Sequence to fold (146 residues):
Amino acid sequence: MAKYGPSLGQKHAHHAIHEGALTGAIQKTEDLLRYLKQGEAEAAKLTADDLIDYWETRIIAHADSEESGFYQEMVEQNPELKEAVIGLKRDHDILRMILQDIRVILKEEGITREVMMKFDSLITVNELHSREEERTLFVEKELFLK
Fold:
């Protein structure tokens, strides 16, 4: 039995999860930038903490769910996806590493230009990852099931 929710296996539902999470991350990153531009340091700090929590609870939790069974099931159904899944898991690891870097920099230096660049890089990596995941797993799945 799968350890993941049914939405992960449905193309449109999975896409909606990706789009909703990405939209939220972009909005929260824009909020952080706005507070910084307005000189609202305390609001910026709270927003940065909220943004880290958002990445952990929405995007990283989603990645964990994919890795807890969904990817394995896709490979079992189509062994040719093995290399693609390895790459997708690596993308997740990159997201986790960037997020950890942000935590360290925030703790040691506060909100810096580097922190903002890393938040932007999270968005870029996640956007590319989601597009590739949907293209690879769902297009391949549709072809495989025909």
About this structure: The domain at 6-145 is CATH 1.20.120 (Four Helix Bundle (Hemerythrin (Met), subunit A)).
